[in-house]
Amino acid sequence: MMDQSCVAEESVLSFARGHRLQHDRVRDLWIVQAPEKAFVIEGSAPHILRLLDGERSVGDIIQQLANEFSAPREVIAKDVLALLSELTEKNVLHT
Amino acid sequence: MTLPSPPMSLLAELTHRCPLSCPYCSNPLELERKAAELDTAGWRSVLEQAAELGVLQVHFSGGEPMARPDLVELVALARDLNLYSNLITSGVLLDEAKLEALDKAGLDHIQLSFQDVTEAGAERIGGLKGAQARKIEAARLIRASGIPMTLNFVVHRENVARIPEMFALARELGAGRVEIAHTQYYGWGLKNRDALLPSREQLQEATRAVEAERAKGGLSVDYVTPDYHADRPKPCMGGWGQRFVNVTPSGRVLPCHAAEIIPDVAFPNVQDGTLSDIWNCSPLFNMFRGTDWMPEPCRSCERKEQDWGGCRCQALALTGNAANTDPVCSLSPFHDRVEKAVEEASEKPELVYRRF
């Protein structure tokens, strides 16, 4: 099991091959497509994942969301790090 | 009237042609010939309509889908339509140039089938000399391309003891996922059930091997259990007409790949109607959708929206009526037929191979 600390603010993440973020137009849901399955993501997750472009760092993403939603940076940081750590552990994302 | 939820995935059986002749082939006993296959424009329309309807993933299957020269074009179209594309292949027709073309077209994932880990075992099932070496080469090419790969092993009485070696091969070849799928006993598989059905002891050993591998980590293991040994049925296809749509080589639209055995109902074809109308309105898709069709013991069962009454094709094959409870369920009045099949399965060397 990987430690959560392996995703840090300076990390630059992107989707692993075979995984992508997609808006499901018919059901009006955000999903992550993966080998032989698709899972629905909700709440803040689509806003976070759509900023993953393989260039922005995790810290940049936190800052951008804090600006966009006028929310305290530390609250956003907690959500972003938890989500990105979980998906990295599941090999959906990689550095 | 509210429309049913749209399907999540499409199984596109591009052709029934295949260089292998596995005796548990999931294709129907009545195989469709090349002359009956949809042309490229026909398949393009199926993909466009599927995306429009709400399908998210398309599984290009067969037969051997690589026997179709338009596979690359169809994969590229799937990508344009934002459909996640999965190629289900035996790998024996794959080479570096074809793989590169598929990769460029945007193929998302490959499921590569193996019949066994030994050459003799593989050739006994697939019937094609030299297939194992070609599959191993295919796996190496896929690994090198970076396209995510699942190895699929269908297991049965003759190879079930080699599950640990199957996992070892998957790790050696760099597969991210491995699927250990017990043979499903419909069509060709049902014809060969006595020769293929594992014993209870074999099943216990297989389950132990799967659990041991999962505990090691690093390899995602998908295990399809043999329902003959279960006492509750599987939620076949996630429920009839709920998540899954299958299009056969000639364009027939089915709720599952074995559904053509269901009697007294018309099988709609994409050449005669839209995929949307077929999904929403055809008698075939509404026949066993939801729970209204259910007899007892399903009707009053608390699991009716978990297993959806099990498999209709299995109910038909073993009880003579597709609307009966799947006899795998211990509450079915026909459950003894499943138990008897398990008792009577035996070493039987003659296999009936799939053929046209």
UniProtKB/TrEMBL annotation, chain B:
Keywords: 4Fe-4S, Iron, Iron-sulfur, Metal-binding, Oxidoreductase, PQQ biosynthesis, S-adenosyl-L-methionine. It comes from the Bacteria. It holds the Pfam family Radical_SAM. SUPFAM superfamilies: Radical SAM enzymes (SSF102114). Transmembrane segments: none annotated. CDD domains: Radical_SAM (cd01335), SPASM_PqqE (cd21119). Pathway: Cofactor biosynthesis; pyrroloquinoline quinone biosynthesis. Residues 4-219 form the Radical SAM core domain. [4Fe-4S] cluster binds at C18, C22, C25. It catalyses: [PQQ precursor protein] + S-adenosyl-L-methionine = E-Y cross-linked-[PQQ precursor protein] + 5'-deoxyadenosine + L-methionine + H(+). Its cofactor is [4Fe-4S] cluster. Its EC number is 1.21.98.4. The keyword Metal-binding applies. Binds 1 [4Fe-4S] cluster. The cluster is coordinated with 3 cysteines and an exchangeable S-adenosyl-L-methionine. Interacts with PqqD. The interaction is necessary for activity of PqqE. Belongs to the radical SAM superfamily. PqqE family. Catalyzes the cross-linking of a glutamate residue and a tyrosine residue in the PqqA protein as part of the biosynthesis of pyrroloquinoline quinone (PQQ). This is PqqA peptide cyclase. It comes from Gluconobacter kondonii. The gene is pqqE.
